[in-house]
Design a protein that fits this description.
Blueprint: H1 13-22, H2 26-39, H3 48-55, H4 64-76, H5 105-120, H6 124-127, H7 133-145, H8 162-182, H9 184-203, H10 209-232, H11 236-253, H12 256-273, H13 277-290, H14 297-314, H15 317-333, H16 350-364, H17 367-380, H18 386-402, H19 406-420, H20 426-439, H21 446-459
Helix pairs in contact: 2-3, 2-4, 5-9, 5-11, 7-11, 7-12, 7-13, 8-9, 8-10, 9-10, 10-11, 10-12, 11-12, 12-13, 12-14, 13-14, 14-15, 14-16, 15-16, 16-17, 16-18, 17-18, 18-19, 18-20, 19-20, 19-21
């Protein structure tokens, strides 16, 4: 049998350019790669000869390309991808970052840390990505049939303790407050840099089992917040990736209730924004099924309200009434003094439920009920929830248009516009655009022309 001809390797010019940019010797790069590998529990023994082979075109196996990219990135002080080091081996690995529900804890850590790095680097495959409904529903299936990971403790890397977890929680609370007051356009860059520069190091560190569960739970909340902020800055494809990873982190935390919250409050609302009503109900029902008997009534009310949104968008009034009625009764059963409510659901009060129902009534064409629900929502939201109040006013305005109360609609729309003047929120802008479309049949009326002029000034 004739011997197979050898295929000559191409020199890795990308890696060579990065090594020169980093002003790093071959031996120095090998040491850095071995250190990053040790942080991830790997015993790597690369040396300067290994680096020379990579430069000649050898493709290291397994997780090594990602570790090499990480090591060079740390030296350069910026995110570096596998493609940039010339080790993707013809595969567009980066395009799938954040879309997988990893089967292992280690895989989950690598997936979410790569998402943070890529977001900080503003990779085009992230910012320009679209949302696939199946990519929302499939992780919910994996979460539904899976359980908490057997073990999350790690023994490699810097030590992480409860004080570190507390810092993540406090940072999350502060960022939530700023986001509600000023909009995600002001806050999201801070969140992403904190996740990449601080939180990823914690996840890759060393921690006991109990601390690890708490860490994954805290990071799940902050990761979900980054996803919500991506929605509010007009990047739904990026939000999808963060939500999937938040769901996976919740599983590692062993927090079934918060996983349900990610499905019902985050993924289903993203599906609603994108006009996928069947996916809304699927995600909300998965949340209910996967948390049955494990969450307090307040969380049950939120999950049922999400399901009601899907039924309303589908025009199924009977199913909506069933889900909405159960949501109202569940919230009535919630005891605010019991202390049973976890922090992630404590905000869901009567005002939030009324907001959800106002959306439903609007979509079902029940203008009078939509007005009542929107007014109830506005009465309950404090001034500090600036974005939520602006959305509530836009909802009220839309319902007033349905009633053909055009002057009242423009008055509410103007108040929403004034509130949004101090916010950087794509979601708020989308509600205003929706109101503008609803007012188009009445464009000849002076009050509508005046409102249009105000919108033009804001856009300028």
């Amino acid at each position: 049998m004739a011997a197979r001809p050898l295929v000559p390797r191409q020199p890795n010019e990308r890696l060579q350019a990065l090594i020169q940019e980093a002003a790093c010797s071959h031996a120095g790069l090998a040491r850095r790669v071995n250190l990053v590998g040790a942080e991830r529990g790997l015993d790597l023994r690369y040396d300067k000869t290994s680096v020379a082979r990579w430069l000649r075109g050898q493709q290291p196996r397994g997780r090594a390309p990602g570790i090499i990219a990480e090591a060079i990135g740390r030296k350069l002080g910026r995110a570096v991808t596998i493609e940039e080091v010339g080790m993707a081996n013809g595969r567009n690995l980066a395009a799938g970052v954040g879309l997988q529900f990893a089967p292992t804890v280690l895989g989950a850590i690598e997936q979410v840390c790569e998402l943070y790095r890529s977001d900080v680097g503003r990779r085009e495959f992230l910012t320009g990505s679209s949302v696939a409904a199946s990519a929302l529903v499939e992780p919910s299936r994996d979460w539904l049939i899976g359980g908490a990971d057997a073990q999350v403790a790690r023994s490699a890397g810097a030590r992480v303790g409860r004080a570190d977890v507390a810092a993540v929680r406090e940072m999350t609370a502060a960022l939530v407050d700023l986001d509600r007051r000023f909009g995600s356009g002001h806050v999201r860059p801070v969140v992403v840099h904190y996740l990449d520069s601080v939180v990823s190091g914690m996840l890759s560190g060393s921690y006991r089992e109990a601390v690890g569960r708490e860490l994954f739970g805290a990071v799940a909340r902050l990761t979900e917040l980054a996803g919500y902020m991506a929605v509010d800055t007009g990047e739904p494809g990026l939000a999808q990736r963060y939500y999937i990873q938040a769901l996976r982190l919740a599983q590692a935390a062993g927090d079934r209730g918060y996983g349900g919250y990610v499905l019902a409050a985050s993924m289903s609302h993203l599906a609603a924004e994108l006009g996928n009503p069947r996916e809304i109900t699927q995600l909300a029902r998965a949340a209910q099924e996967g948390t049955r008997g494990r969450v307090p009534p307040r969380a049950e009310a939120m999950f049922l309200a999400a399901e009601a949104r899907g039924h309303a968008l589908l025009g199924d009034a009977r199913a909506f009434e069933w889900a909405a009625g159960r949501a109202v009764r569940a919230l009535e059963a919630a005891d605010p003094e019991s202390g049973d409510d976890p922090v992630w659901i404590a905000h869901f009060d009567g005002a939030y439920l009324a907001d959800e129902l106002a959306h439903c009534y609007r979509d079902l064409g029940r203008a009078d009920a939509a007005v009542r629900a929107a007014e109830e929502s506005l009465a309950g939201h404090p001034e500090t929830r600036a974005r939520r109040r602006a959305i509530g006013l836009a909802l009220l305005a839309a319902a007033r248009v349905q009633q053909r109360e055009i002057e009242e609609a423009c008055r509410a729309g103007t108040r929403a516009l004034e509130l949004l003047g101090g916010l950087r929120s794509s979601r708020g802008a989308e509600y205003l655009e929706d109101l503008r479309d609803r007012l188009e049949p009445f464009a000849g009326e002076p009050v509508v022309r005046e409102f249009e002029a105000r919108l033009e000034v804001r856009a300028a």
